[in-house]
Amino acid sequence: MPFSQMAVPNKEQKIQIEMYLKKNQLIVTRFRAAKRYASIPKVTLLLLTVIFSQACQNSSEENTLQEQTKEHPNISKLRSQSAEFTPEIIQLNKNVYVAVGFDGSNASMVIGEQGVVIIDALRALGAAEKVAEEFQKITDKPVKALIYTHSHQDHSGGTAAFVGDSQGVKIIARAGFKDELQERSPVEPILKQRNARQFGRNLPAEEVINRGVAPGTTPTDRVGEGYIEPNTTFEDSMLVTLAGLDFELHAANGETNDQLFVWIPALETLFTGDNYYKSFPNLYAIRGSQYRDVKSWGESVQKMSTLPVEYLVPGHTRPLSGKALVHRRLKNYATAILSVYQQTIDAMNQGYTLQQTVDSVRLADSLRNQPNLQEFYGSVPWGVRSIFLHYVGWFDGNPTNLYPLSGSQEAKHIVELAGGEQKMFDQLNDALKEEHYQWGLRLADYLLQTDYEKTKVIEVKVKLLRALAAQQINAPARNYYLSYANELERNSE
Ligand SMILES: [Zn+2]
Question: How far away, in angstroms, is 365 Cα from ligand 1 center?
């Protein structure tokens, strides 16, 4: 159905209407999405829909809308996830405010009798300054402490905006903070390149949807320049009174080995760091990450699920409230992680190879269908591969793989089997036509190791990558496919 004929806009259209209105300064807002639409009569929404539709005529936005009408359901789902990053200061309860969507992650303010405590500090100093300004409009109490849930730069780059010169401010983190950052890696150049692909940093705006648990683009104003080192650290847990409130900080290995969670019993509020957000967890990052301790990650979330949490603040995506709901979400998250872990271990002990293990592990439907376990960011098979390699390294147990043929030798044999290079190229085109995209990529890679015309093969490979991106729910995978396709195209010009 054409956009302009729809009586009531769907969620995606609401976001677009909102973007249009904001762009044209028809509304200046900072209030909750749910209330926002409840307060607009349906007739007005229809009118706005029509205005929006007309305003977009002959523009690239219209093209995008037309594409959306035939887009894959996975892409629509991924688009709807973007509502998680609408910039907003959310008041969660009397004492807690969460800044969502100002940068890639969340920063929070907890107000106590004697001052405020900040939890996580965003990535760009410029974004952190904006949030600090918003927080100061709410209270002028002094910042007594800042807690880092972990060392990733998207949570620690903007500290100075909140604490100034940090004199007298406790900056709290776990012992071992920042030990595993990639800037110290000998393979930093390739990590950087892969990072750019995973996050779609060089993609044109029209190809970007989001980053799974973060907006498609994030501020670049003085990235990391506000970082301040912790001056207070602890090993397992720390019970501390900050700004007049009692805080519990617990070590919780998971996404990183310096992860912690913050529990404030009097406020029934939990800050999970990146061990929880609204997506299947990123048990392995395709930008290239060290092993993330999957078992500990599951157990950390399990531990959180035993607390009587009324308010949950994730490291990314919007906060949640309601004891029963929060409990359910934490519980299914822990179950999903531990299930992937245990299934992988069991398959390995059966003597399964890496690929057989990947093929055998699957989340139960009751978990797979949960809204907080959609694979927007993490992906089950990537987690399985990571666990497998962690325990046994590269050799998968099959002696065929002890001394495999070189890539070009194997390609030569396979091409011969296919009846020669031209026949293989025909098969490659058939694979594209018949929508066997993954198989097509394999054929293209064989051909690229022969003397066959590279430009022609690359042209098809680019189409295959874009076709896969057009049906991928996982944002890092989608961004990677598209970035790689663009690079291939540029390099073959
Ligand atoms: Zn993060």
Answer: 27
